[in-house]
Structure formats: structure tokens, C-alpha cells
Amino acid sequence: TQFGYQEVPMEEKQGRVDDVFHSVARRYDIMNDLMSGGLHRLWKNAMVSWLAPPHSGRPYRVLDMAGGTGDIAFRISDRSRGHAEITVADINGSMLEVCRERAEKHGYTNLSYAEANAEELPFEDKSFDAYTIAFGIRNVPRLDKALSEAYRVLKPGGRFLCLEFTPVSTPVIAQLYEAYSFRVIPMIGQVVTGDRESYQYLVESIRVFPNKERFASMISDAGFERVSYRDYTTGVVALHSGWKL
Ligand code: SAM
Predict the structure, then answer these.
(1) Which among 41, 79, 177, 218 is least buried, having the fewest CB atoms inside 10 angstroms?
(2) What EC number(s) does its UniProt record assign (predicted)?
(3) What CATH number is attached to the domain comprising 149?
């Protein structure tokens, strides 16, 4: 790219991603606020609003994949008034550790944890009513595997929701966004975490992610139906939805 980034081969990608999140786990939450100017909170709220988890009735089980430090799980819990039973799964023990501490501090008792790879889930078929993944799927090397695992572990009638940065197609916005993401974000990363490279890598992983239409068809290919998506913040972020029917 014009910024001199070299693409990481598929076999090395997961190791690289794991290093990034081990290194930033303790500063992850503050970094999100700094990098997005707080916008990530609105995007996450929008995701949980679209999910609209029930707050009564039969048990409602959610798998929050790549759940990191728990932002989505806590929102789902709040929104369901504590009714949802949420499994926070992440490949990275350091991120889950921060999640556990936050959950304890804020008194969440309806959460369980699993150190797991999205490509190979340690759960039985048809275990969950919903599968959520926020800013996680672009880190997974084999998207198709992650999507078919999501499909497998959902119950019939289950919901798939994925929040993710997407490549921007509007030219002016794309230029602004590129300047921001390739110059400002690694700089904030350097100042706050001392780790410029990790953030440069994260930014690059957005650029190579499939566009919204392409990603929607990958979700359909995994077996999901009624696939649709919503755009946020001029298409910087998209929220994809699908149903296992
Ligand atoms: N969902 C949280 C949020 O929105 O704040 C965390 C998102 S964070 C940007 C991405 C997370 O994906 C990290 O916690 C990372 O460890 C996790 N991750 C990366 N590759 C993964 C994989 N193959 N399987 C499961 N989790 C993975």
C-alpha cells in the first residue's frame, strides 16, 4: 500500500492478531474511545437494539463471539434485564481476563466464558438463540469457516449479527477515512500503548475485508436466510444480520 504495509500470509495471520490483543488488552477500552471518538458505543448500542433480546420467557442463550472485554455481552445483559445467558468467547485469554474483571466489578452474573477459536467452536450444534460478533470477524483468517460454525451452533430460528468496519467506497469519505486510519490511529496507538505496529495492522485488516454486498453473500452461502445489513457513519461500519431458518 502507499503506507508501506506488507500483507501477512494467511498462516501467520492468527498469531499476529493474538499478539496484537495480548499486547493491548489492558488499554483496549480506552483505545476504542480514543480511536472512534466514542462512536463505537453508538454502533454497539445499535447492534444490541437490532438484536432486541427478550427480557422474559424461555431461556435466551447468546454466544458473543470474539467478545473481547465484554462490551456487547454487557449491553445484551442490560437490554434483556439480566434474562439472557451469555457466553463470551474469544481466542485470547488476556482479553477474556479483562472481561471477567469488568463483569465482576459491575455485578454481571449471567455470563460464562470460553477461550475459543471462531473457526472451530467447542459447542454442540443448535446451542444458541443468537450469535453476535462485533469488530471480530475481520481478525479471523478463514471467514467461511467462522460463518459455517456460527450457523452450526445456532438453533433453528436463531439470529446472526455481525458488526464490522467495512471498506469505504464513497471517494471523498474514503480519502478522509484513509488519512485518519493510516496516520491518526497508529499514532494514537503509539502514544497510548507504545505499539504503533499493532494498530497499523488492525487498520490494514479493514482495508482487505470484503465489501458489504460481498460479505452479505458469504453469509448467505453459509446457509443463512433473510440476510440484510445496515450502514452506520457513512458506511464506515456495517451491521449484517441473518437468520437460521
Ligand atoms: N467484540 C469486542 C468489542 O467489540 O469491543 C472485541 C473486539 S476486538 C477488536 C477483536 C477480538 O477478536 C479480540 O478480542 C481478539 O482476541 C478476537 N479474535 C481474534 N481472532 C479470533 C478468532 N479466530 N476466534 C475468536 N476470537 C478472535
Answers:
(1) 41
(2) 2.1.1.163, 2.1.1.201
(3) 3.40.50.150
> Is residue 191 domain-resident?
no
Looking at residue 206, its pLDDT comes to: 77
- pLDDT at residue 8, rounded to an integer: 64
Pocket test for ligand 1, best of 21, 117, 142 (most atoms within 8 A of CB): 21
For the chain, how many structural domains are there in total? 1
Domain for residue 29, yes or no? Answer: yes
Q: Is 68 in the pocket of ligand 1 (CB under 6 A)?
A: yes
Provide mean pLDDT across the span 172-177: 81
The answer on whether 33 is annotated among ligand-binding residues is no
Residue 192 is assigned to a structural domain of this protein: no
**3-state secondary structure at position 133:** strand
Ligand 1 lined by 121 (C-beta under 6 Å): no
Q: Report how far apart, in Å, the C-alpha atoms of 230 and of each of 7, 95, 111, 114, 197 are.
A: 29, 28, 28, 29, 31
- 184, part of any domain: no
pLDDT digits (tens, 9 = 90+) for 201-217: 778 877 778 999 999 99
Q: Which atom of ligand 1 is nearest to the CA of 202?
A: 9
pLDDT band at 5 (very low <50, low <70, confident <90, very high): very low
C-alpha cell recorded at residue 81: 434485564
pLDDT given at position 3: 39
Q: What is the pLDDT of residue 34?
A: 87
Q: Is the Cβ atom of 66 under 6 angstroms away from ligand 1?
A: yes
